[in-house]
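Intended use. Records like the one below are meant for learning the mapping from a protein sequence to its folded structure. Do not use them to infer anything beyond what is encoded.
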Amino acid sequence: MLAFPHRKRYTFGMEKTKLTIPYIIRNWKSLKVRQKRAILSVLLIAAALVLFLIALIVGIISCSGKAEAEPAETQEIAPLPALLRAPDRTGEAADPNEPEDGDPNAEPDLSGLVLLEEPDDEPTGENQGNTESTTEYQQLKKHDKGEAVSTLQARLMELGYLEIEEPTDYFGSSTEYAVELFQRQHELKQDGVAGTETLKLLYSKDAQHYTLKEGAEGRDVKMLQEQLVDLGYLAESEVDRVYGSVTIEAVKAFQKRNGLSADGLAGEKTLEKLYSDEAKISKSLESKLKAEEKSASSSSSSKSTPKPSSSKTTPKPGKTTPKPTAKPTPKKETRIEKFIKAANSKIGCEYVLGDRGPKTFDCSGFVWYCLKQAGVSVNRLNASGFSKKASWKNISSINDIQKGDILFFRSDASSNVSHCGIYIGSGMMIDASSSNGKVVKRAVSSYWKRNFVNARRPW
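Structure written out for the chain above:
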């Protein structure tokens, strides 16, 4: 029992009375106010001390539990890309003034990166030994903006699904289509939305490079088939947008003819060769062209030169034959003028990856179409293929370019040619721009000068 000492200063005015808890409870009403306050103060101090001791004990137990749970060494976490904070939304409808995939002249702002990463709980059961971390991925879809879009585009470009001038911060039609191609190849739902499942696979080591294989359908398959038609490996009637058995056999024939592994898959090496200036035409087309050339040569040599007429008209004496007045010959358009005229006529046409006109284009398809309008016969190549065409004069310095030259560019993130345009003089060019979503006329700005690779002069 709690009892207070008998010394005067601790007995609260009751020197001869032993203060016990039962006594205080029984005589509480008769105690003075000063005594009651003193007793309550002592009780509060005692309660505070008890609570402090309890908290201290709980804290010690908690710390010791955490120390036991921590491993002796930090677990090695598999490297995953840093996804960024949630993108800004622009609403349900796209702003008509918003560029398709942003401005390639503006370098993306990579400040404020946020890694959303949570370690797995301690593995148990069938997950025992799995130390891979889990990353929370932010869903991305058309019209989203932000650093996460730039990261997404850079990865799609790295794997060959996206061809744009430069990663931007805007999720446009080109990015949506690239996501669909990735989903198609990995047998995911093809909705063009970069959700958790798509992003997790895209950033993993299991992500496959862009390859056309059996069962694929779409306009990229049509583009491949049209190229095979031009090279003589496929009939025009067999272009059906489906990568089926006929197309596979045509690809195998092309691969054999060009020294590639004949697996029927249109992968990175096959596509690079197919759209290059070094692609060999089929033997059947080669034989056909030789026969036509031989026929034309024999036909021209068999033509006889007409004999001059022996009859002469003698003018009468004293009369002179008046000379006809020469009419001015109208100036013919040069091929360069036709080339630039065709380019100007298509300003504003929609950008569509793989298309070559007459209403929709990608950058190399646009150059091919304009060359064709200018009377230049050339196979449909990609930007990299056109940049290496040996029969065209190579211009290595941007200071030496001339009107009608075809300009080739890389991006800040890669040394490979990924874009081309037509130089029209006065520091301007016309090109099919993925970032603007259409054919545009624009200045050869500092961005393009910095990323200039070379130019070719087909004239």
